[in-house]
Amino acid sequence: MNPLRKLLGVCAAVILAAGCGGGEVRGSPGGEVRISPNTATADHALAVPGNQVDFAAFQSCPTFGTCAEEIPTTWTFSDRSNIQTDPGCDSGGNACRVTCLAAATVTVTATHKGTGNKATAMLTCQ
Q1: Do 120 and 107 meet the contact criterion of CB atoms below 8 Å apart?
Q2: What's the whole-model pTM score?
Q3: Three-class SS of residue 49?
């Protein structure tokens, strides 16, 4: 067999064996944590629901879709002084509603309990 063909065959086999990864965090079960929406804006001067944003954390799978509808999540915020959060943000669930009380830019972080995988989103309260 031609040495070049043999080399190309080996390279193709390595690529196929490696797969595409699908965004999986290496060394962790499932995949990486993501937050939707990734960025959001709410107007603190508006009434509900115009001053609120619903965030959801989910785990991406190395294949298709999501690994779990609900993942145990710890929500943290860079600044709580200008926002109010609903009880879901503190109960370990995958959903969190944030209400803007004043102008602020807040980093929202979701951490999948047990894996340490984190995702962040930006909330602008105007």
Answers
A1: yes
A2: 0.67
A3: coil
